[in-house]
Specification:
binds adenosine-5'-diphosphate; Heat Shock Protein 90; eight-stranded mixed sheet; alpha+beta; Ribosomal Protein S5, domain 2; five-stranded mixed sheet; 2 domains; binds magnesium ion; 8 helices
């Protein structure tokens, strides 16, 4: 008798969902990204009991059309991508159609949504664990969408226990992640709050509908933090023949005609390269690729190395948005899309270090304390 058999569909769904939604951060990230993708100019994230009881994300975006209710939470159903080749021209955060389907499998989940022409009425949508629409009802609602995730991991006892144990630390990580989304999203009013079971509601942070990232940073981190930052406004050619940063004078003499060269722009804000203007811990460093928050450990290392040669005792505050050609990277590496594969990373890092030295030279009279090898 054959022993190799397919895993039952429901179990496959649960196993795969557990890879998309791994913690509180993934829930908040996926829902906020959906709100931004829906064109929202106001996004409110409400945690109940640090997210242990519920996470709700309310937006004033386009809402969901009745024709899409049935497929909304089905796996690999998305309004954002239909063929693989669309990936390179993608301007939305989402594209896999996995988040809502995974949340159905791992939480008590429902959605309330209303379109502009729905008047003051909206629809509450409830789903089965598989993502199949279970029922709808008419409710009072404003234009936009509210997604409610209750009792995350209630059906995965080990993860639920772990979440109960670590929830406060997790909540801290979520705030850091949401700070990045709030600061990069110009023209979007963000607010994040937490409601304890018997306590009052506390607002963790809020931004106004600012047109500039620097005003978002001021809202989130305070005007004083902002004062210690200088604009990060770099444009450089990514030169595959770049020499190590020790030859930093050469930064001005690069051959831009080099066949392998590509223009990179980096926009943002960074601490002044002066002792006393940095931070004790490197906890405020945010990186983006074309406005998508992501983890760029090698890029972070390059920034920190150059900064350390001016201020060895502290770490910089970094808010850096890399503007890259969409062919120069691949976001489809990890389920959470935070890991990004940068083609030609070595060339980019060398050119980046040179450009940073140049920037810092303009802001500090002193010669770097240690020249990088
Ligand atoms: P993806 O974002 O990869 O498309 P999701 O599972 O996150 O997959 O969402 C599925 C679809 O549901 C989206 O493509 C979008 O059409 C719709 N959707 C999800 N959240 C919202 C929202 N807040 N407002 C409007 N539509 C939404
Ligand atoms: Mg999505």
């Amino acid at each position: 008798m054959a022993t190799i058999k397919p895993i039952e569909g429901r179990s496959v769904h649960q196993i795969q969902s557990g890879q998309v939604i791994v913690d509180l951060c993934s829930v908040a990230k996926e829902l906020v990204e959906n709100s931004v993708d829906a064109g929202a100019t106001s996004i409110e994230v409400r945690f109940k009991n640090h997210g242990l009881d519920a996470i709700e994300v309310q937006d004033n975006g386009a809402g969901i059309a009745a024709a899409d209710f049935d497929t909304l939470a089905l796996k690999h159903y998305t309004s954002k991508l239909s063929t693989y080749s669309d990936l390179t021209s993608l301007s939305t955060f989402g594209f896999r159609g996995e988040a809502l389907s995974s949340l159905c499998a791992l939480s008590k989940f429902h959605v309330v949504t209303a379109r502009a022409d729905d008047g003051p009425k909206g629809t509450k949508l409830e789903f089965e664990q598989s993502g199949k629409l279970k029922g709808t009802s008419v409710v009072a609602a404003k234009q936009g969408t509210i997604v409610v995730v209750e009792q995350l991991f209630y059906n995965l006892p080990v993860r639920r226990k772990e979440l109960e144990k670590t929830v406060k630390r997790e909540y801290g990580k979520v705030l850091q992640l949401l700070n990045a989304y709030a600061c990069i999203s110009t023209g979007v009013k963000f607010s994040v709050s937490n409601q304890l079971p018997k306590g009052k509601k506390t607002v963790a942070f809020a931004t106004q509908s600012n047109q500039h990232t620097r005003d978002n940073l001021a809202n989130v981190y305070g005007a004083k933090t902002l004062m210690a930052l200088i604009p990060l406004d770099l444009t450089f050619e990514m030169d595959s023949s770049a020499k190590p940063a020790a030859a930093m004078q050469s930064a001005r003499n690069w051959s831009t005609q080099d066949d392998g060269s590509k223009t990179v722009k980096i926009a943002g804000h960074i601490s002044r390269p002066v002792v006393g203007e940095g931070r004790q811990t490197p906890d405020r460093q945010m990186f983006f690729v074309n406005s998508r928050p992501c983890a760029l450990p090698q890029v972070a290392k390059a920034f920190n190395e150059v900064y350390k040669s001016y201020n060895i005792t502290q770490s910089p505050f970094i808010f850096a948005d890399l503007k890259l050609d969409t062919n120069a990277y691949d976001v489809n590496v990890s389920p959470d899309k935070r890991t990004i594969l940068l083609h030609d990373q070595t060339a980019l890092l060398e050119s980046l270090k040179n450009a940073l030295f140049e920037l810092f030279q303009g802001h500090d009279q002193s010669v770097p304390q240690a020249q990088l090898a």
